[in-house]
Amino acid sequence: MKKITYNNIGIDVYKHTCKNGLDVYLVPDKRVRSFFATLNVKYGSDILKFKLNDKIIKIPVGSAHFLEHKMFEQENGITPFDFYSSLGIECNASTNNKKTDYIFSGSSSFYESLEYLLDYVQAPYFTDENVLKEKGIIKQEILMYEDDPGQKLYDCSLYNTYFKNPVKYSVGGKVSDIMKITKEDLYNIYNAFYQPKNMFLVVTGNIDVKKTIKLIEENQGKKKFDDNKVEIIDEEEPIEVKNRYEEILDNVAISKFAINIKIRVKELKENVPIYSRYLSFFLETVLGTTSKLKEELTNKGLITYNLSSEIVEAGDYSSIVIMGETDKYEETIQYIMDALKNQKFSQKEFDLNKKLLKSHYVYTSDSIYSINSFIVGQIIIRGKINEKVYLDVDKMNKVEYNYVMSQVDFNNYGVVVIKPKTKK
Protein backbone atom coordinates (compact mmCIF):
# COMPACT_ATOMS: atom_id res chain seq x y z
CA MET A 1 0.00 0.00 0.00
CA LYS A 2 1.22 3.47 -0.89
CA LYS A 3 0.14 6.76 0.67
CA ILE A 4 -0.17 9.66 -1.76
CA THR A 5 -0.80 13.20 -0.51
CA TYR A 6 -2.17 15.90 -2.79
CA ASN A 7 0.04 18.93 -2.18
CA ASN A 8 -1.71 21.99 -0.70
CA ILE A 9 -5.15 20.37 -0.88
CA GLY A 10 -5.05 18.13 2.17
CA ILE A 11 -6.19 14.91 0.51
CA ASP A 12 -4.48 11.66 1.51
CA VAL A 13 -4.99 8.75 -0.87
CA TYR A 14 -4.06 5.17 -0.03
CA LYS A 15 -3.36 3.19 -3.18
CA HIS A 16 -3.27 -0.60 -3.20
CA THR A 17 -2.99 -2.96 -6.17
CA CYS A 18 -4.55 -6.37 -5.65
CA LYS A 19 -2.81 -9.55 -6.77
CA ASN A 20 -5.15 -9.76 -9.78
CA GLY A 21 -4.31 -6.21 -10.89
CA LEU A 22 -7.34 -4.33 -9.51
CA ASP A 23 -6.23 -0.87 -8.36
CA VAL A 24 -7.83 0.47 -5.17
CA TYR A 25 -7.80 4.13 -4.10
CA LEU A 26 -9.04 4.91 -0.58
CA VAL A 27 -9.55 8.38 0.93
CA PRO A 28 -10.59 8.03 4.60
CA ASP A 29 -12.38 10.95 6.23
CA LYS A 30 -13.50 10.51 9.83
CA ARG A 31 -15.13 13.96 9.85
CA VAL A 32 -18.13 12.58 7.99
CA ARG A 33 -20.46 9.66 8.68
CA SER A 34 -21.07 8.69 5.07
CA PHE A 35 -19.09 6.96 2.32
CA PHE A 36 -19.10 6.92 -1.47
CA ALA A 37 -17.74 4.09 -3.62
CA THR A 38 -17.29 3.77 -7.37
CA LEU A 39 -16.13 0.66 -9.19
CA ASN A 40 -14.89 2.01 -12.49
CA VAL A 41 -14.33 0.22 -15.80
CA LYS A 42 -12.00 1.78 -18.36
CA TYR A 43 -14.52 1.13 -21.07
CA GLY A 44 -17.09 3.46 -22.61
CA SER A 45 -19.07 4.07 -25.76
CA ASP A 46 -15.99 5.17 -27.75
CA ILE A 47 -14.84 1.55 -28.18
CA LEU A 48 -16.74 -0.17 -30.99
CA LYS A 49 -14.03 -2.37 -32.47
CA PHE A 50 -11.35 -4.39 -30.73
CA LYS A 51 -9.33 -7.56 -30.96
CA LEU A 52 -9.99 -10.20 -28.30
CA ASN A 53 -7.40 -13.00 -28.27
CA ASP A 54 -6.60 -12.28 -31.94
CA LYS A 55 -10.28 -12.28 -32.96
CA ILE A 56 -11.61 -8.97 -34.30
CA ILE A 57 -14.84 -7.98 -32.56
CA LYS A 58 -17.26 -5.30 -33.83
CA ILE A 59 -20.13 -4.30 -31.56
CA PRO A 60 -23.22 -2.14 -32.15
CA VAL A 61 -23.37 1.48 -31.05
CA GLY A 62 -24.86 1.78 -27.54
CA SER A 63 -23.46 -1.54 -26.31
CA ALA A 64 -21.51 -0.01 -23.39
CA HIS A 65 -24.64 1.58 -21.98
CA PHE A 66 -26.68 -1.57 -22.64
CA LEU A 67 -24.14 -3.67 -20.76
CA GLU A 68 -24.28 -1.30 -17.80
CA HIS A 69 -28.03 -1.92 -17.60
CA LYS A 70 -27.64 -5.68 -17.86
CA MET A 71 -25.13 -5.84 -14.99
CA PHE A 72 -28.09 -5.09 -12.71
CA GLU A 73 -29.75 -8.36 -13.70
CA GLN A 74 -28.67 -11.19 -11.41
CA GLU A 75 -29.25 -14.91 -11.84
CA ASN A 76 -30.96 -15.23 -8.45
CA GLY A 77 -33.53 -12.60 -9.45
CA ILE A 78 -32.48 -10.11 -6.75
CA THR A 79 -31.26 -6.88 -8.31
CA PRO A 80 -28.64 -4.57 -6.79
CA PHE A 81 -31.44 -2.02 -6.34
CA ASP A 82 -33.33 -4.56 -4.19
CA PHE A 83 -30.26 -5.49 -2.18
CA TYR A 84 -29.05 -1.97 -1.47
CA SER A 85 -32.54 -0.68 -0.75
CA SER A 86 -32.89 -3.30 2.00
CA LEU A 87 -29.78 -1.81 3.64
CA GLY A 88 -30.80 1.83 3.21
CA ILE A 89 -28.02 2.33 0.67
CA GLU A 90 -28.30 4.25 -2.60
CA CYS A 91 -26.88 2.69 -5.76
CA ASN A 92 -26.57 3.69 -9.37
CA ALA A 93 -24.43 3.34 -12.49
CA SER A 94 -23.44 5.55 -15.41
CA THR A 95 -21.75 5.29 -18.78
CA ASN A 96 -20.04 7.91 -20.89
CA ASN A 97 -17.72 7.74 -23.87
CA LYS A 98 -14.66 6.87 -21.72
CA LYS A 99 -15.82 4.82 -18.74
CA THR A 100 -18.56 2.93 -16.91
CA ASP A 101 -19.11 3.41 -13.16
CA TYR A 102 -20.99 1.31 -10.60
CA ILE A 103 -21.81 3.29 -7.49
CA PHE A 104 -23.14 3.05 -3.96
CA SER A 105 -23.31 5.52 -1.08
CA GLY A 106 -24.68 5.65 2.43
CA SER A 107 -23.76 5.84 6.10
CA SER A 108 -24.13 2.23 7.30
CA SER A 109 -23.45 -1.36 6.17
CA PHE A 110 -20.33 -0.28 4.25
CA TYR A 111 -18.46 -3.60 4.17
CA GLU A 112 -21.53 -5.61 3.21
CA SER A 113 -22.23 -3.08 0.45
CA LEU A 114 -18.67 -3.14 -0.83
CA GLU A 115 -18.51 -6.91 -1.03
CA TYR A 116 -21.80 -6.99 -2.90
CA LEU A 117 -20.57 -4.34 -5.38
CA LEU A 118 -17.53 -6.44 -6.23
CA ASP A 119 -19.64 -9.59 -6.52
CA TYR A 120 -22.43 -8.37 -8.76
CA VAL A 121 -20.19 -6.44 -11.17
CA GLN A 122 -17.96 -9.49 -11.46
CA ALA A 123 -20.82 -11.94 -12.08
CA PRO A 124 -22.45 -11.28 -15.49
CA TYR A 125 -25.71 -12.99 -16.33
CA PHE A 126 -26.78 -12.48 -19.94
CA THR A 127 -29.40 -14.58 -21.72
CA ASP A 128 -31.25 -14.17 -24.99
CA GLU A 129 -34.43 -13.58 -23.00
CA ASN A 130 -33.17 -10.91 -20.62
CA VAL A 131 -31.32 -9.10 -23.42
CA LEU A 132 -34.54 -8.96 -25.44
CA LYS A 133 -36.47 -7.67 -22.42
CA GLU A 134 -33.91 -4.91 -21.84
CA LYS A 135 -34.22 -3.67 -25.42
CA GLY A 136 -37.77 -2.54 -24.72
CA ILE A 137 -36.69 -0.69 -21.58
CA ILE A 138 -33.75 1.08 -23.22
CA LYS A 139 -35.85 1.89 -26.29
CA GLN A 140 -38.10 4.05 -24.12
CA GLU A 141 -35.07 5.73 -22.54
CA ILE A 142 -33.61 6.55 -25.96
CA LEU A 143 -36.91 7.94 -27.25
CA MET A 144 -37.10 10.18 -24.18
CA TYR A 145 -33.63 11.61 -24.90
CA GLU A 146 -34.46 12.05 -28.58
CA ASP A 147 -37.43 14.22 -27.55
CA ASP A 148 -35.09 16.58 -25.65
CA PRO A 149 -34.05 19.41 -28.04
CA GLY A 150 -30.93 20.20 -26.02
CA GLN A 151 -29.72 16.61 -26.11
CA LYS A 152 -30.58 16.34 -29.79
CA LEU A 153 -28.60 19.51 -30.51
CA TYR A 154 -25.54 18.22 -28.65
CA ASP A 155 -25.68 14.78 -30.27
CA CYS A 156 -26.13 16.21 -33.77
CA SER A 157 -23.22 18.58 -33.23
CA LEU A 158 -20.83 15.71 -32.53
CA TYR A 159 -22.32 13.52 -35.25
CA ASN A 160 -21.80 16.25 -37.85
CA THR A 161 -18.24 16.98 -36.72
CA TYR A 162 -16.68 13.51 -36.95
CA PHE A 163 -16.44 11.05 -39.82
CA LYS A 164 -15.40 7.84 -38.07
CA ASN A 165 -14.53 8.60 -34.45
CA PRO A 166 -17.13 6.83 -32.22
CA VAL A 167 -17.60 10.01 -30.16
CA LYS A 168 -19.95 11.03 -32.96
CA TYR A 169 -22.54 8.59 -31.64
CA SER A 170 -24.70 9.18 -28.57
CA VAL A 171 -23.76 6.99 -25.61
CA GLY A 172 -27.07 5.14 -25.68
CA GLY A 173 -27.15 4.77 -29.46
CA LYS A 174 -30.33 4.76 -31.52
CA VAL A 175 -33.19 2.29 -31.29
CA SER A 176 -32.00 0.60 -34.50
CA ASP A 177 -28.56 0.12 -32.88
CA ILE A 178 -29.70 -1.55 -29.67
CA MET A 179 -31.95 -3.93 -31.58
CA LYS A 180 -28.76 -5.49 -33.01
CA ILE A 181 -27.17 -6.20 -29.61
CA THR A 182 -26.86 -9.86 -28.60
CA LYS A 183 -25.77 -11.61 -25.44
CA GLU A 184 -22.62 -12.65 -27.35
CA ASP A 185 -21.77 -8.97 -27.86
CA LEU A 186 -22.15 -8.35 -24.14
CA TYR A 187 -19.98 -11.31 -23.14
CA ASN A 188 -17.30 -10.25 -25.64
CA ILE A 189 -17.21 -6.78 -24.09
CA TYR A 190 -17.23 -8.17 -20.58
CA ASN A 191 -14.43 -10.65 -21.24
CA ALA A 192 -12.32 -7.96 -22.89
CA PHE A 193 -12.78 -4.99 -20.55
CA TYR A 194 -14.47 -6.04 -17.30
CA GLN A 195 -11.27 -7.55 -15.99
CA PRO A 196 -9.47 -6.46 -12.79
CA LYS A 197 -6.48 -4.97 -14.64
CA ASN A 198 -8.85 -2.71 -16.58
CA MET A 199 -10.86 -1.63 -13.54
CA PHE A 200 -10.26 0.42 -10.42
CA LEU A 201 -12.12 1.08 -7.20
CA VAL A 202 -12.31 4.49 -5.48
CA VAL A 203 -13.79 4.82 -1.99
CA THR A 204 -14.06 8.11 -0.09
CA GLY A 205 -15.51 8.84 3.32
CA ASN A 206 -15.74 7.22 6.75
CA ILE A 207 -13.84 3.96 6.19
CA ASP A 208 -11.05 1.95 7.77
CA VAL A 209 -8.24 1.56 5.23
CA LYS A 210 -6.70 -1.70 6.44
CA LYS A 211 -10.02 -3.44 6.99
CA THR A 212 -11.24 -2.33 3.56
CA ILE A 213 -8.16 -3.59 1.75
CA LYS A 214 -8.32 -6.92 3.59
CA LEU A 215 -11.94 -7.38 2.51
CA ILE A 216 -11.13 -6.56 -1.11
CA GLU A 217 -8.14 -8.90 -1.27
CA GLU A 218 -10.10 -11.77 0.25
CA ASN A 219 -12.99 -11.15 -2.12
CA GLN A 220 -10.80 -11.01 -5.21
CA GLY A 221 -8.75 -14.00 -4.08
CA LYS A 222 -11.83 -16.25 -4.32
CA LYS A 223 -12.34 -15.45 -8.00
CA LYS A 224 -10.63 -16.52 -11.18
CA PHE A 225 -10.28 -14.26 -14.21
CA ASP A 226 -9.15 -15.05 -17.74
CA ASP A 227 -5.94 -13.41 -18.89
CA ASN A 228 -7.32 -12.21 -22.22
CA LYS A 229 -5.29 -10.34 -24.78
CA VAL A 230 -7.11 -7.17 -25.86
CA GLU A 231 -6.27 -4.54 -28.46
CA ILE A 232 -8.50 -1.55 -29.23
CA ILE A 233 -8.82 -0.78 -32.95
CA ASP A 234 -9.20 2.90 -33.86
CA GLU A 235 -10.29 4.31 -37.19
CA GLU A 236 -8.27 7.09 -38.87
CA GLU A 237 -10.16 10.38 -38.54
CA PRO A 238 -9.86 13.20 -41.13
CA ILE A 239 -8.99 16.62 -39.76
CA GLU A 240 -11.86 18.56 -41.32
CA VAL A 241 -15.42 18.82 -40.03
CA LYS A 242 -17.77 16.36 -41.72
CA ASN A 243 -20.81 18.63 -42.08
CA ARG A 244 -20.48 22.40 -41.79
CA TYR A 245 -24.14 23.29 -41.29
CA GLU A 246 -27.49 21.68 -40.53
CA GLU A 247 -30.91 23.06 -39.63
CA ILE A 248 -33.48 20.96 -37.76
CA LEU A 249 -37.14 21.79 -37.21
CA ASP A 250 -38.44 20.84 -33.78
CA ASN A 251 -40.90 21.75 -31.06
CA VAL A 252 -38.95 24.67 -29.59
CA ALA A 253 -40.14 28.19 -28.83
CA ILE A 254 -36.76 29.82 -29.48
CA SER A 255 -34.04 28.63 -31.84
CA LYS A 256 -31.08 26.80 -30.33
CA PHE A 257 -27.60 26.53 -31.84
CA ALA A 258 -24.40 24.58 -31.32
CA ILE A 259 -20.94 25.46 -32.61
CA ASN A 260 -18.39 22.62 -32.70
CA ILE A 261 -14.74 23.55 -33.29
CA LYS A 262 -12.67 20.47 -34.19
CA ILE A 263 -9.05 20.46 -33.01
CA ARG A 264 -6.33 17.92 -33.75
CA VAL A 265 -4.57 17.35 -30.42
CA LYS A 266 -2.32 14.35 -31.08
CA GLU A 267 0.83 16.50 -31.03
CA LEU A 268 -0.56 18.78 -28.32
CA LYS A 269 -0.94 15.83 -25.94
CA GLU A 270 2.72 14.99 -26.43
CA ASN A 271 4.02 18.55 -26.08
CA VAL A 272 1.55 20.00 -23.55
CA PRO A 273 -0.28 17.20 -21.67
CA ILE A 274 -2.43 19.75 -19.82
CA TYR A 275 -3.54 21.45 -23.05
CA SER A 276 -7.22 21.12 -22.06
CA ARG A 277 -6.63 23.37 -19.05
CA TYR A 278 -5.42 26.12 -21.36
CA LEU A 279 -8.47 25.64 -23.55
CA SER A 280 -10.64 25.91 -20.44
CA PHE A 281 -8.86 29.14 -19.50
CA PHE A 282 -9.64 30.49 -22.95
CA LEU A 283 -13.32 29.53 -22.80
CA GLU A 284 -13.80 30.96 -19.32
CA THR A 285 -12.25 34.25 -20.38
CA VAL A 286 -14.20 34.58 -23.63
CA LEU A 287 -17.53 32.95 -22.75
CA GLY A 288 -17.74 32.96 -18.95
CA THR A 289 -20.57 34.60 -17.00
CA THR A 290 -18.45 37.71 -16.34
CA SER A 291 -16.92 37.91 -19.83
CA LYS A 292 -17.17 40.97 -22.05
CA LEU A 293 -18.71 38.86 -24.83
CA LYS A 294 -21.49 37.59 -22.58
CA GLU A 295 -22.26 41.16 -21.52
CA GLU A 296 -22.32 42.41 -25.12
CA LEU A 297 -24.55 39.56 -26.33
CA THR A 298 -26.96 40.17 -23.46
CA ASN A 299 -27.08 43.93 -24.00
CA LYS A 300 -27.77 43.42 -27.71
CA GLY A 301 -30.56 40.98 -26.91
CA LEU A 302 -28.81 38.17 -28.79
CA ILE A 303 -28.94 35.52 -26.06
CA THR A 304 -31.65 34.60 -23.57
CA TYR A 305 -29.33 33.07 -20.97
CA ASN A 306 -25.69 32.17 -20.46
CA LEU A 307 -23.83 30.33 -23.17
CA SER A 308 -22.64 26.84 -22.30
CA SER A 309 -19.28 25.47 -23.41
CA GLU A 310 -17.59 22.11 -23.09
CA ILE A 311 -14.38 20.41 -24.20
CA VAL A 312 -14.98 16.91 -25.56
CA GLU A 313 -11.92 14.68 -25.84
CA ALA A 314 -11.95 12.23 -28.74
CA GLY A 315 -8.61 10.45 -29.05
CA ASP A 316 -6.40 12.39 -31.43
CA TYR A 317 -9.00 15.17 -31.52
CA SER A 318 -10.90 17.45 -29.18
CA SER A 319 -13.99 19.53 -29.71
CA ILE A 320 -14.99 22.87 -28.26
CA VAL A 321 -18.79 22.72 -28.15
CA ILE A 322 -20.61 26.03 -27.57
CA MET A 323 -24.40 26.04 -27.19
CA GLY A 324 -26.93 28.82 -26.81
CA GLU A 325 -30.47 29.96 -27.48
CA THR A 326 -31.53 32.89 -29.67
CA ASP A 327 -33.84 33.79 -32.53
CA LYS A 328 -30.99 35.77 -34.10
CA TYR A 329 -28.71 32.77 -34.42
CA GLU A 330 -26.84 33.87 -37.57
CA GLU A 331 -25.81 37.18 -36.01
CA THR A 332 -25.03 35.55 -32.67
CA ILE A 333 -22.87 32.80 -34.15
CA GLN A 334 -20.89 35.30 -36.22
CA TYR A 335 -20.43 37.52 -33.17
CA ILE A 336 -19.14 34.59 -31.12
CA MET A 337 -16.76 33.35 -33.82
CA ASP A 338 -15.31 36.84 -34.32
CA ALA A 339 -14.75 37.11 -30.56
CA LEU A 340 -13.03 33.72 -30.42
CA LYS A 341 -10.71 34.55 -33.31
CA ASN A 342 -9.79 38.00 -31.99
CA GLN A 343 -9.53 37.29 -28.27
CA LYS A 344 -6.50 38.82 -26.55
CA PHE A 345 -5.72 37.04 -23.29
CA SER A 346 -3.98 39.39 -20.84
CA GLN A 347 -1.58 38.30 -18.13
CA LYS A 348 -4.05 39.60 -15.55
CA GLU A 349 -6.80 37.35 -16.90
CA PHE A 350 -4.37 34.44 -17.10
CA ASP A 351 -3.35 34.87 -13.45
CA LEU A 352 -6.98 35.19 -12.38
CA ASN A 353 -7.83 31.87 -14.03
CA LYS A 354 -4.93 30.22 -12.23
CA LYS A 355 -6.31 31.46 -8.91
CA LEU A 356 -9.78 30.19 -9.82
CA LEU A 357 -8.38 26.78 -10.73
CA LYS A 358 -6.55 26.55 -7.41
CA SER A 359 -9.76 27.51 -5.61
CA HIS A 360 -11.57 24.76 -7.48
CA TYR A 361 -9.06 22.17 -6.29
CA VAL A 362 -9.40 23.35 -2.68
CA TYR A 363 -13.20 23.31 -2.96
CA THR A 364 -13.05 19.76 -4.29
CA SER A 365 -11.40 18.58 -1.08
CA ASP A 366 -14.47 19.53 0.98
CA SER A 367 -16.72 16.81 -0.44
CA ILE A 368 -16.27 13.03 -0.52
CA TYR A 369 -18.26 12.98 -3.76
CA SER A 370 -16.11 15.65 -5.44
CA ILE A 371 -12.90 13.96 -4.30
CA ASN A 372 -14.07 10.63 -5.72
CA SER A 373 -15.03 12.21 -9.05
CA PHE A 374 -11.74 14.12 -9.16
CA ILE A 375 -9.64 10.98 -8.67
CA VAL A 376 -11.68 9.00 -11.20
CA GLY A 377 -11.32 11.80 -13.76
CA GLN A 378 -7.54 11.94 -13.36
CA ILE A 379 -7.18 8.18 -13.83
CA ILE A 380 -9.46 8.03 -16.86
CA ILE A 381 -7.95 11.05 -18.62
CA ARG A 382 -4.28 10.82 -17.58
CA GLY A 383 -3.94 7.18 -16.53
CA LYS A 384 -2.88 8.02 -12.98
CA ILE A 385 -3.46 10.47 -10.16
CA ASN A 386 -1.28 13.57 -9.99
CA GLU A 387 -0.70 14.69 -6.43
CA LYS A 388 1.09 17.82 -7.69
CA VAL A 389 -1.93 19.08 -9.62
CA TYR A 390 -2.26 22.16 -7.36
CA LEU A 391 1.43 23.04 -7.60
CA ASP A 392 1.44 22.46 -11.35
CA VAL A 393 -0.93 25.39 -11.77
CA ASP A 394 1.97 27.71 -10.91
CA LYS A 395 3.93 26.26 -13.84
CA MET A 396 1.25 27.22 -16.35
CA ASN A 397 2.48 30.06 -18.53
CA LYS A 398 1.60 32.24 -21.51
CA VAL A 399 4.21 30.57 -23.75
CA GLU A 400 2.47 27.20 -23.48
CA TYR A 401 -0.91 28.87 -23.72
CA ASN A 402 0.03 30.66 -26.94
CA TYR A 403 1.34 27.41 -28.41
CA VAL A 404 -1.89 25.58 -27.55
CA MET A 405 -4.06 28.30 -29.06
CA SER A 406 -1.90 28.39 -32.19
CA GLN A 407 -3.01 24.80 -32.84
CA VAL A 408 -6.70 25.76 -32.86
CA ASP A 409 -8.12 26.45 -36.31
CA PHE A 410 -11.20 28.56 -35.66
CA ASN A 411 -12.26 28.09 -39.27
CA ASN A 412 -12.60 24.35 -38.77
CA TYR A 413 -16.05 24.32 -37.21
CA GLY A 414 -19.60 23.22 -37.85
CA VAL A 415 -22.98 24.59 -36.78
CA VAL A 416 -26.28 22.91 -35.94
CA VAL A 417 -29.44 24.99 -35.47
CA ILE A 418 -32.76 23.76 -34.12
CA LYS A 419 -35.58 26.05 -35.24
CA PRO A 420 -39.26 26.21 -34.25
CA LYS A 421 -41.52 24.21 -36.57
CA THR A 422 -43.95 27.12 -36.71
CA LYS A 423 -43.55 30.81 -36.07
CA LYS A 424 -46.16 32.47 -33.90
Describe the overall structure:
This protein is α+β, with helices and mostly antiparallel strands and 424 residues long. It folds into two domains: 2-232, Metalloenzyme, LuxS/M16 peptidase-like (Cytochrome Bc1 Complex, Chain A, domain 1, 2-Layer Sandwich), CATH 3.30.830; 245-420, Metalloenzyme, LuxS/M16 peptidase-like (Cytochrome Bc1 Complex, Chain A, domain 1, 2-Layer Sandwich), CATH 3.30.830. The chain contains 16 helices and 15 strands. A seven-stranded mixed beta sheet has the order 1-2-3-9-4-8-7, with helices on both faces. The chain has a five-stranded mixed beta sheet with strand order 11-15-12-14-13, sandwiched between helices. Strands 6-5-10 form a three-stranded antiparallel beta sheet, with helices on one face. Strand 5 (49-52) and strand 6 (55-58) form a beta hairpin. Helix 1 crosses helix 7 and helix 3 runs parallel beside helix 8 (209-221). The chain is globular.
Task: Explain briefly what this protein structure is.
The protein is of the alpha+beta class. The chain has 16 helices and 15 strands.
